[in-house]
From TrEMBL:
GO cellular component, one term: plasma membrane-derived thylakoid photosystem II
Cross-referenced Pfam families: ThylakoidFormat
Function: May be involved in photosynthetic membrane biogenesis.
Listed name of the protein: Protein Thf1
GO biological process, one term: photosystem II assembly
Coiled coil keyword on record: yes
Family indicated by similarity: Belongs to the THF1 family.
InterPro entries assigned: Thf1
Length: 218
């Protein structure tokens, strides 16, 4: 039996017996995903891994459909441009597996839920959110972003100005008995992260083109 197999078996046993530490999750992640992650994406992956590990330790946390939408869609958005693209499925699976989550199940729930909310107005989305949500949602950044993503895909959201978008979002969070202030902060940081990623990718591309031109001249 190889060292790699032994390590996976050891961690699988530990997963069944007790909660994994962040250090355990990192070791298991690198066993499952033995590739170098480009610096631009490494911080995002590290933050997601720590966040998922900590959520798994919360007794009140439940893996509901909002969490699944939030996790799959923020991963897709923040990983845009990752190369090689064919590694993304394994990267997501490794993140989930190393923190005691099931990637396949999360993807299936996310797809089903987004289909259910597709092509609806914000009022219909709020009604469906209230009907589907548990009486006590476990507040987390990922859940907040899942709700925001469903709202932002509503038919009338894109037509509104920024102020009306913010008010609509806050009203929906309040009606779900979730902190509108916390949600606003989580959404703001998420949008800022996307913007910074885009700027960084543009800068990297500009430098690549400059280097190419410089090498051609030489």
């Amino acid at each position: 039996m190889s060292q790699h197999t032994l390590t996976l078996l050891r961690f699988t046993y530990k997963k069944l017996k007790e909660k994994l530490t962040v250090s355990d999750s990192k070791k298991l992640f690198h066993e499952k995903f033995p590739y170098v992650i480009p610096g631009l994406y490494k911080r995002i992956v590290d933050e997601m891994l720590v966040e998922l590990n900590l959520l798994n330790h919360q007794n009140e946390f439940t893996q509901d459909y909002l969490f699944c939408v939030g996790l799959t869609e923020t991963f897709k958005e923040l990983m845009k441009g990752y190369q090689p693209e064919k590694h993304l499925d394994l990267l997501f699976e490794s993140l989930c597996c190393s923190t005691n989550f099931e990637a396949k199940e999360i993807n299936e729930i996310s797809k089903k839920s987004q289909k259910e909310f597709k092509d609806k107005t914000s009022k219909d989305i709020l009604k469906l959110l209230v009907e589907k949500s548990n009486s006590k949602l476990y507040p987390s950044r990922i859940l907040n972003l899942g709700i925001y993503i469903l709202i932002s895909n509503s038919q009338d959201f894109k037509e509104k100005n920024e102020s009306d978008k913010n008010k609509m979002t806050s009203d929906i969070f309040e009606k779900l008995s979730l902190s509108a202030n916390k949600a606003e902060k989580d959404i703001g940081i998420y949008k800022s992260s996307i913007s910074k990623m885009e700027q960084a990718k543009e800068l990297i591309e500009e430098l690549r083109i400059k280097d190419k031109k410089k090498n051609q001249k030489n």
